[in-house]
Amino acid sequence: MSFVSRHRVRFAHCDPAGIAYYPRLLELVDAAIEDWTHYGTGVSRAVMHEQHRLGLPTATLATDFARPVQLADELEINVAVTGIGTTSVNLAVDAQCAGERRFSATLVQVLINLGNGQPHPWPEAWRQQLLSVQ
Predict the structure, then answer these.
(1) What does the pLDDT read at residue 62?
(2) Mean pLDDT score of the chain
(3) Would the N or C end of the chain have less CB density within 10 A of its end CB?
């Protein structure tokens, strides 16, 4: 089951030719995953950080760009869980514009304790939520 986050490509995301610069596309991937976090774990990224003192940084990232993304494109960024570890989650991201694939990414994110930076096991309620959306 996937989660969809919609993003318009803005001038700030593009080079002078109007083509989105890939680091800005990765910012959109991160924004989509931040939107997904509440859906995937049951808690928002803000609550995760501020109340639980846990973070979810990316440990592994691979991308595949199929077609250029351009100024004013309306991207639908789908986020899906492909695996759950003791302290990690594997995600597949697929970005489309008007039904046409533009780029995809696979990520491994690791839940960490923000105090010491060490991996932290998923709280059971969060794990159950991840399993329910996998």
Answers:
(1) 98
(2) 97
(3) N
